[in-house]
Design a protein that fits this description.
- It is found in: Golgi apparatus membrane.
- InterPro entries: Golgi_SNAP_su1.
- Belongs to the GOSR1 family.
- By secondary structure, the chain is an all-alpha fold.
- The chain has a domain of 119 residues: Up-down Bundle (Methane Monooxygenase Hydroxylase, Chain G, domain 1), CATH 1.20.58.
- Helices cover 91% and strands 0% of the residues.
- Helix 1 runs parallel beside helix 3.
- It is elongated and about 145 Å long.
Length: 233
């Protein structure tokens, strides 16, 4: 019963909300077509009504969501037949209604905000145009100066962006060069560390060759002396 009551209230509120959005759009179009000098931004009362109705509908949607959650908890509680098709069908129906109302509310709200934003933008542009047309020569000259200054600022902004891009590219190149230099330095350090070991190995090889030569010479000399002694004995 609570869910059906909230659904009825939501249905009425959404109908009124949709009518408000439609009347807002048609009213703005009518005022714009009726006179070029009529101000467009005079719907503050409709804006306040929109905000009030949106808050009320959000509150009702929150209450209906809470009721659906309680019904879901009841169906999942102990003592309730889990295979009650009618009960599950009723719960699913209320969920579908809540989903439809939520979707309709967000869609209508988005349309209203889009229309209001468009009208505010058009109104601002039209005011600027009317102010420019009705302004004196001094105001026109001032506007031209403002436009030129704006163009200068845009050019300066573009030059700053180009300078920043060049600086970033230079930084990347210097970073890559620093990495290459570090790699070369590490390789040089590795070679420098290896050279003492190579020199030490070569010295040991030479010492061993010299020792082997001395041993071989001594053996040959001894053998020669023994052969001579044997020959002249």
């Amino acid at each position: 019963k609570q869910a059906r009551q909230l659904e009825n209230e939501l249905d009425l509120k959404l109908v009124s909300f949709s009518k408000l959005c439609t009347s807002y759009s048609s009213g703005r179009d009518g005022r714009r077509d009726s006179s070029d000098t009529t101000p467009l931004l005079n719907g503050s009362s409709q804006d306040r009504m929109f905000e009030t109705m949106a808050v009320e509908i959000e509150q009702l949607l929150g209450k209906l969501t809470g009721i659906n959650d309680k019904m879901a908890e009841y169906t999942n509680s102990a003592g309730v037949p889990s295979l009650n098709a009618a009960l599950m069908h009723t719960l699913q129906r209320h969920r579908d209604i809540l989903q439809d109302y939520t979707h309709e509310f967000h869609k209508t709200k988005a349309n209203f905000l889009a229309i209001r934003e468009r009208e505010n933008l058009l109104g601002s542009v039209r005011k600027d145009i009317e102010s420019y047309k009705s302004g004196s020569g001094v105001n026109n000259r001032r506007t031209e100066l403002f436009l030129k200054e704006h163009e200068h600022l845009r050019n300066s902004d573009r030059l700053i962006e180009e300078t920043i891009s060049i600086a970033m590219a230079t930084k990347e190149n210097m970073t890559s060069q620093r990495g290459m230099l570090k790699s070369i330095q590490s390789k040089m350090n590795t070679l420098a560390n290896r050279f003492p070991a190579v020199n030490s190995l070569i010295q040991r090889i030479n010492l061993r060759k010299r020792r082997d030569s001395l041993i071989l010479g001594g053996v040959i000399g001894v053998c020669t002396i023994l052969l001579l002694l044997y020959a002249f004995h």
